[in-house]
Amino acid sequence: MYCVKCGVELMKGVRTCPLCGTAVYHPDIDETPEAPLYPRSDGREETVSPSGILFVLTFLFLIPVIVCFLVDLRMNGRVDWSGYVYCGMGVLYALLCLPFWFRRRSAVVFIPVSFAAILLGALYICLKTGGRWFLSFALPVGGTLMVIVETAYVLCRYTVGRYPHRYLYIFSGVFFALGGLCVLIEFLLCETFGLTFRWWSLFPLAALILLGILLLVIAISRPLRQSLYKRLFL
Prior knowledge:
Blueprint: H1 51-76, H2 82-96, H3 107-129, H4 134-158, H5 166-193, H6 202-220, H7 222-232
Helix pairs in contact: 1-2, 2-3, 3-4, 4-5, 5-6
């Protein structure tokens, strides 16, 4: 079909000539508009339920547990080494899959849950091997690390707001706390296992304190922050 005024070839379904603007009309041809290139959206977003994927992952986690149980039962007649497999798979499942079963996932809740799963795994290993290091070493170290991580998350989540430089204060405090944790670990190792205190924890303590001081200086000095942002996009 062609324009009656300028003669340019017209696409099917157009109402006016794109060159001269003349209205396109032919009484003998029933023009039907072509289908759009893209389907129209009804405005509703498709949501994919994670339940199916979580069910498959749960089944995959159960496969090594069941296989190890059967092998251990066949070899030893009781649950012996397969308990370590149950413990490890349970901790991994709690860390990787458990939060996704809940519609409203809050790290404030699942950070302690994750550390609790790790500590329960450590308790099982301690009891299975007949050790006495859980209460004197694993529990205080794991509890202290959980408090550091939980506090850092809560501060980042609820206190930063429109002031991104507050992250520097928070992570500066995290570095200081991790340095103190290194000293605590060496002290508890010596107390629990009868080792000699050799002050190796001072090396990571010094490095972490220097990093914390660096972040603190950057957080306090606004010109320095602006210079780093312009030069390094930090």
